[in-house]
Q: What sequence folds into this?
């Protein structure tokens, strides 16, 4: 790359992730991971949640739409199929179409009003411990294998930020 050319959006986002980690800034890392993932997922909403295992609750750390989904918001997941699947079994959740979103999310009306029709929720796991989730919601109803792979990569990219936040507690 010549000095006169500017980096692609994906490369710029990777550089932003690197800068955030060099500065030990989890919030900046989450924002940069959202930007990096947008190139492949074309998502309309990204949220990143910390998992409180004792309360079986997720607490929002980051949102690409803080007006609709402000950081600090939380959702109780005790006794839910989603909580068992993602938080306890540590498996990626794929929700395709409005019926799936309605079945698994209490806030399905807000999701629908934002024009979102599919979701990929990725547990961020270290060892046997789920630290949180990285979540992407898209306006299209279908999720491709490539979408799932891109979302899983975002979860891996978020792991150092989750580890830093756990260390700070």
A:
């Amino acid at each position: 790359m010549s000095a006169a050319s500017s980096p692609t959006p994906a490369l710029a986002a990777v550089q932003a992730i690197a800068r955030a980690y060099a500065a030990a800034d989890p919030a900046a890392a989450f924002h940069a991971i959202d930007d990096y993932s947008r190139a492949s997922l074309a998502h309309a909403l990204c949220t990143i949640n910390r998992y409180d295992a004792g309360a079986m609750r997720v607490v929002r750390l980051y949102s690409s739409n803080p007006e609709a989904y402000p950081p600090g918001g939380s959702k109780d997941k005790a006794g839910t199929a989603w909580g068992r699947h993602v938080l306890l079994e540590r498996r990626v959740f794929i929700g395709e179409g409005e019926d799936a979103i309605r079945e698994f999310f209490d806030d399905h009306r807000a999701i629908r009003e934002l024009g979102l029709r599919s979701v990929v929720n990725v547990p961020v796991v270290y060892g046997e411990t789920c630290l949180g989730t990285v979540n992407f919601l898209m306006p299209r109803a279908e999720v491709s294998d490539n979408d799932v792979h891109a979302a899983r990569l975002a979860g891996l990219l978020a792991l150092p930020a989750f580890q830093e936040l756990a260390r700070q507690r």
In short: The mean pLDDT is 95. The chain is about 45% helix and 25% strand. The two ends are 41 Å apart (CA to CA). Strands lie at 45-52, 57-63, 74-76, 93-96, 118-126, 129-138.
